[in-house]
């Protein structure tokens, strides 16, 4: 369940927090994403002013649409086309890893160190994960959402590689590799 926030031409989807969450929590998430310091939030034509009021006070529920309006003293910093391209590249790389490598990796890890899979299967997966990390490392987002998304993607792929390396080390210790 999510809430949509309209910001200029963008449509942002945020997870709906519990009903007793103060409006300030949504406002803070939007501040972090947009890098705006001051803005107005509008829901069903009303400006949301009391940050301490729970979101239920404003009847914000799943599917609600909020409008984010920067104030005159704050210029919006919408993602540039270069950042959008980086976001697409990062998402594509992570989706490729998840769809093509993770299922095979999960099979090998589930089988444990006693798997009958040849050592080359483990090494091939390790090499492919490492190549993915290197491709992400070649991207250089300076600021914004692309930098954060790249960081999270690297962390996820590195965790997969670490799990594989632990299994390989255990297999070597058991004399299976």
TrEMBL record:
Could you provide one GO biological process annotation from this protein's UniProt record? protein stabilization
Identify the keywords attached in UniProt to this record, alphabetized: Chaperone
Q: Which InterPro entries match?
A: BAG_chaperone_regulator, BAG_dom_sf, BAG_domain, Ubiquitin-like_dom, Ubiquitin-like_domsf
Which Gene Ontology CC terms are recorded?
Answer: cytosol; membrane; nucleus
Q: Which GO MF terms does the UniProt record name? A: adenyl-nucleotide exchange factor activity; protein-folding chaperone binding
UniProt xrefs under SMART domains? BAG, UBQ
Which Pfam families does the entry link to? BAG (PF02179)
Top-rank taxon, per record: Eukaryota
Residues forming the BAG domain are 120-168
Q: Which SUPFAM superfamilies match?
A: BAG domain, Ubiquitin-like
Q: What is this protein called?
A: BAG domain-containing protein
Q: Which organism is it from?
A: Candolleomyces aberdarensis
């Amino acid at each position: 369940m999510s809430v949509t926030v309209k910001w200029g031409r963008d449509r942002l989807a945020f997870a709906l927090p519990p009903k007793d969450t103060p409006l300030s929590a949504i406002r803070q998430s939007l501040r972090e994403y947009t890098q705006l310091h001051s803005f107005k939030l509008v829901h069903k034509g009303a400006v949301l002013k009391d940050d301490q009021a729970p979101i239920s006070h404003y009847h914000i529920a799943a599917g609600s649409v909020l409008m984010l309006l920067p104030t005159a003293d704050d210029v919006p910093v919408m993602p540039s086309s270069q950042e959008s391209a980086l976001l697409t590249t990062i998402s594509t790389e992570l989706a490729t890893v998840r769809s093509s490598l993770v299922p095979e990796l999960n099979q090998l890890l589930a089988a444990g160190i006693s798997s009958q899979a040849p050592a080359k299967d483990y090494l091939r997966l390790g090499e492919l994960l490492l190549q993915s990390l290197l491709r992400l490392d070649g991207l250089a987002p300076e600021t914004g959402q692309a930098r954060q998304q790249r960081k999270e993607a690297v962390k996820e792929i590195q965790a997969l590689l670490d799990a594989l390396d632990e299994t390989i080390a255990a297999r070597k210790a058991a004399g299976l590799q």
